[in-house]
Amino acid sequence: MRHIARYYETLGLEPGATADEIKQAWRDLAQVWHPDRFSDNERLRKKAQEKLKEVNEAYQILRNPPVDGAAGPNSEPPSSPANVHWAPSTEDPTAAVNQRELLTKDGVNAWNLWRKKYSDLRPDLKGADLRKADLVGADLREADLSAALLHEADLYKANLSNSNLRQAKLSRADLNRAMLINSDLSGADLESADFSSADLSGAHLRKANLHRAQLIGASLCGADLTGALGLTREQISEALTDAETRLPPFPKG
C-alpha cells in the first residue's frame, strides 16, 4: 500500500527492511531531529518537532504494519497513534490480569491511553512475563513490577520512575534513556542491561546484579548501590554521581 511505502521513505529505508533496521533507523533519526538540539532557534525547533512526529509515526506503523487488504491505499492506517481508541474488554479494567493482557497484546499506545484514563491507579504487574516485550516509551510510573520477567525487553525511553522492580529480571534489557527516578531495583538482575543516558537519580540498587551493565552517561545522583554485585570502578567512571551516591567498597588497586 502506498502509505506504507511512504513510512519506509520517511525512515530512509527500502520496503521489506527488517525489524532491527526499522528500529535503528528510527533511533538514529530521533537523535538527529530531537528538538532540544535546536533550543536556541525557535524556528528550527518547531521544524524538528514536526519532523520527529513524522519519524515516530512511521516507526509506530512499521513495527506493527496493517494486514494487507485491511485498508484502502488512501485510507488512514488503523494503528496510527492518532487513531488509537482503547476500550476495556471486561467490566473490571483495573484488574491485574487485564492490565497485563493490555500491555502485552494491545501494545504501548493502548497502554499509555489507559494510564491517562486511570491516572490514580498504580499498575499491578507483579511477576508479569514481559520477556523481549516491546515497551518503548511505556508509561510504567509507580508500577509494581517486582519479580517481573523483563529479560531483553525494549524499554527505551520508558518511564519507570517510582516503580517497584525489586527482584525483577532485566538481564540484557534495553533501558537506554529510560526514566528510573526513585525506582526500587533492590536485588534485581541487571546483568548486561543497557542504562546508557538513563536517569537513576535516587534509585535503590542495593544488592542488584550490575555485572557488565552499561552505565555510560547514566545519572546515579543520590542512588544507593550498597552491596551491588559485579560493579566496577570503570562502570562508575562512565556514569554521573554526586556526594549523595552510595557505592559499595571497591578492591584497592
Quick synopsis:
It is built from 6 helices and no strands.
User: Could you say which structural class the secondary elements and strand pairing correspond to?
Assistant: mainly alpha
Distance between the termini: 62 Å
Largest sheet: none
CATH fold-level assignment of the largest domain: Pectate Lyase C-like
Provide the CATH architecture of the largest domain.
Answer: 3 Solenoid
Mean residue pLDDT? 83
Spans of 5+ residues with little confidence (pLDDT < 50)?
Answer: 67-91
Write up this protein.
The protein is mostly helical and 253 residues long. The chain folds into 2 domains: 82 residues, DnaJ domain (Helix Hairpins), CATH 1.10.287; 161 residues, Pectate Lyase C-like, CATH 2.160.20. Helices cover 28% and strands 0% of the residues. The chain is built from 6 helices and no strands. α2 runs antiparallel to α3. The longest helix is centred in the N-terminal third of the chain and has 22 residues. The protein is globular, with a radius of gyration of 20 Å. The N and C termini lie far apart (62 Å). The relative contact order is 0.07. About 10% of the residues have low confidence.
Features:
globular; Pectate Lyase C-like; mainly alpha; Helix Hairpins
Write the layout of secondary structure elements.
Blueprint: H1 2-10, H2 19-32, H3 42-63, H4 96-106, H5 108-117, H6 233-237
Helix pairs in contact: 1-3, 2-3, 4-5
